[in-house]
UniProtKB/TrEMBL annotation, chains A, B, C, D:
Residues 9-316 form the Enoyl reductase (ER) domain. CDD domains: MDR4. It holds the Pfam family ADH_zinc_N. Coiled coil: none annotated. It comes from the Bacteria. InterPro entries: ADH-like_C, ADH-like_N, ER, GroES-like_sf, NAD(P)-bd_dom_sf, Zn-ADH-like_protein. This is Alcohol dehydrogenase. One of its GO terms (molecular function) is oxidoreductase activity.
């Protein structure tokens, strides 16, 4: 098969090359990939640092061409969306059946390919906050791929949703996606007090933070006792410096920060992907595709993504796409 | 009655003065105080910043002289240990009956007075870690009042206990209190790698951190997926700077830091104090009193505590002590 | 003041009589009651077994006529909805400020009075299930006062909602309230297999059970591993007999049943009532009042409720209602 | 290899016969079995109802003869203890490396073989109760294999341990294993009141119930708000009939019963088995072997176990035991 493979001798660390077909394990189905989506973490983390000759890629949608040998998972011909630790940017992918969602009719394979990491992280991150019905949830980096899905799913879950962005032009879009409030942050904001002041109705129950750095420090100050900040993204590339006392109890008991990584929390994600795909089909989710083109343009798309030039998700189609 | 009261015109911000007797609410008992203990947070936080004329003090032991009007709590004459948001450093104290533990015969009132904040925080903090039986628990600032009780209770709870201290002379004591391993930290340690390397058997399930600053940053690096660091003390007085990526998922999913403050988690603490007092009585806990004297020496004891010159808990006795 | 008081010499165990005004504690506001609602548990549990001369009643709405002495809670003149362990069926009520919700303009006091036990239990019970977004929730006794609010809130929380009722005529109403599926149970149903078969898409994540008896046994069989059945109501009046093996692990690990009682879970309920009242105001909740009349008809309304003749909530208005 | 296989034409449903060697998957090691232990659930559940020709057996200890192909797990020659859904009663066993514990020197392989189901269930069940340090835990069927390990581990975890047994002769043994109180139940006991009365210090935080039936109903009555009963064993063979109201909130809010099955909760059990084996080595656990003999006596041992004639664990040795 052909696949994008890590090649550190290439200018973009990537080459579209011949690669041996994947060999499915007993609990894996073989998928003919029709489209895949790109993630920021792949652009800045996986590709520059991956092992030469490996095939990256977390998200792919396509059609089952060989069912799993152990009888689990979907039958040949089923349209599916898949998550895995790699291997998505290729004509064929072997994937654990527990990590496969099935697609209803009418869902575009390219749109479906945006779901696994972006909407899967949004859903699992929100669940890690505990019950959100009737509670306040803050989403930072709200205009990112994960951020957009988080807004939509938090609103669907009955939360009062507050979106934080540095781009005032996005306010209308963020409200349309479900934000009840939009806070526009000054890019140079520091300390935590400014954000506490901007949230006029007081602390929040949960934060999904896509940014890190000074934004994370400020967002932590807004968390109520019993609440949680999920450190899901790190797009600022900055360290977090918490002033002495920010973790002290009198500021609020039992306020947590926790790390998050979907690929270590993937058990049962296939069923979640099936549910998310159903929302796409019924118009209950907006995939927010901001770049779409043939898969031969993969390196170009990845560069645009790393530079923050893709307003939403980047999707690449294979010629076989049906 | 006489009481230590906040007086910012005095050199130590404290004066032993006449004060109106406390008026118990319907769910409060009135206690004749026999002894109280001092806490580092009182020395550096409460006394310098408290309101003039108020009586500080979280921990006091004594005898009930008036039972609660609503019928709850212990009868007149009962020997008790009490926690409250203030009012302990006085001849009389009014205290919620839910925050009163009863003492078995043979427990010294001065030793009992060390329990509420120090052992109460240790017990509640360990419970916040979830089940610890057969799991690894790291205690930083292990030689402090809270640290010593945490070592003892974590060992009693079946954990494998690792004590972190900057004082190599304390190693034997910390082992005697229950530490299975003692790590002596260089005071100038920075970054997180050094501590990870010192824990040769890998990550820990939980951390009770009394220090903050660079120690907290290092300790967080040792937490296993699903584990928790409790930010209980802040003796370093330093900010925490986490390098970019320390919260990133690939380093370990679902690793949490959480704030802690016993006074906001006090529901039912009376029953816990009764249990802890039973351990004192049976020799199952070492109170570790490092300073003891008449209550007229309160300001002097507090200054010694703030300077780190008290090896353990400081206890002050009132003349009425029985 | 006048109040409905327990009087076991009266035919309905109740008399509308003179009663001393309540004396608010320091953290209590005094409310002039405008309307109260009745609950099934009051009809069958509290009134027949209460102490002579006491004033029952959990739910009341009205206006603050004296603010709390400790400065907490709403000011005089605020329209509020209140929960308490008793005292609602009276012209005046003293109530803890933590148990008081405030009402937006435009919310009818009678409709608001239906919220505390019915919608409060629904909200707290659903939260006890953990995250429900994208998960399946079964509600038994779905046509009851609590059941109706549970359907609405579970749908708002993004769950797939399955309503169980014995009355086929209610199907349309239950769907309008948010049920995605309605299962009509045969009143004589026994064993658990029948319900498992009716849920064609497999087990559920959570159950809010208002019925008990054979329905509870059947509903427990539908719970997935990691899921929970909340035993919230007991309207069947029947015992639960679980066949040998129903709790055995091979049927599904970690499937829980738990007891529930709002009055023991009331901390912070005031903020929840404020949020629920906001939903009423915006049309996001249907109060479902099935009986409304002057409070002098209280005994009659209660008898109707106990006999199952009230289709929804029963609300009684005091002459002072504004 | 030779193995005990299900044979429903045999009087005991078992035959010691030739069987194809197991073929390890990529994440499985191959073990030469030295000893295995029998469990009550195998005697009454697996063997009578298993599929003809399959090899039963959850617990086996032995030596690795082929390491896992994927590089995980112990090396050839390592002494290990293993858990799996079957296959233990044979000369060779293929087992997932995540389900393998390693043995320190000095641990007898037969004693180690008692750990997986019995001590693993005890440890995981106790963890499901949440923190137990300083809390009261009730163990029913305390003299059973799982019960004995639960007593020991609950005591090690700092709980106050109450053992329930029907055999007054066991009291001394149960106390030696860690029980602080022993309650001897009348075999004909019914209802729940009797047990509540016997626990003079009030409700318990957790129950590990090995018995079911009327004992389970009584034990549930003793659970405090926030507490949990783990339905771990079902030796009574009886249904549970809870009187109307036993789940009602006024009896106590948030009291849970939950199903338990170790084989569905096995992730990471290998590390737990290593820890448990360390306790065996240091004398911190008593394996309580009540039957030991050559594996050719397997059917006889199983029959004795099913009839309740084995006082503790039954262990069978293979000739190859080293």
């Amino acid at each position: 098969m052909r696949a994008w493979t890590i090649d550190h001798s290439a200018p973009d660390h990537l080459a579209l090359a011949e690669h041996p077909d994947p060999e499915p394990g007993p609990g894996q189905a073989l998928i003919e990939v029709a489209a895949f989506s790109l993630n920021y973490g792949e652009a800045v983390g996986v590709v520059p640092h991956g092992e030469n000759g490996t095939v990256p890629g977390w998200d792919a949608a396509g059609v089952v061409v060989r069912a799993a040998a152990d009888g689990s998972g979907p039958a040949v011909g089923t349209r599916v969306v898949t998550l895995g630790p790699g291997g998505a940017w290729a004509e064929l992918r072997a994937v654990d059946t527990d990590w496969i969602g099935t697609l209803p009719e009418g869902v575009d394979l390219g749109e479906a390919s945006t779901l696994p990491v972006a909407a899967g992280s949004a859903l699992r991150g929100l669940r890690r906050l505990g019950p959100i019905l009737g509670r306040r949830v803050l989403v930072t980096g709200a205009g990112s791929g994960v951020g957009r899905y988080t807004l939509q799913l938090a609103a669907r879950g009955g939360a009062h949703v507050i979106a934080l962005t540095t781009d005032p032009a996005k306010e209308e879009t963020l409200r349309a996606l479900g934000a009840h409030e939009v806070v526009v942050a000054d890019r140079g904001a520091s300390g935590g007090a400014w954000l506490v002041e901007r949230l006029s109705d007081g602390p929040v129950h949960g934060v999904i933070d896509m940014v890190g750095g000074a934004i994370r420090v400020a967002a932590y100050r807004t968390v109520a006792p019993g609440g949680t900040l999920i450190a899901m993204g790190h797009s600022s590339g900055a360290a977090e410096t918490f002033p002495h006392g920010d973790f002290a109890g009198p500021l609020g008991h039992d306020r947590a920060i926790t790390s998050f990584f979907l690929l270590h929390d993937g058990a049962g994600i296939g069923a979640d992907l099936t549910w998310l795909a159903g929302l796409l089909a019924s118009g209950g989710l907006d995939a927010g595709v901001g770049w779409r083109g043939p898969w031969t343009g993969g390196a170009e798309a990845l560069a645009a993504l790393a530079e923050g030039k893709v307003p939403g998700k980047a999707v690449l189609d294979l010629p076989s796409a049906t």
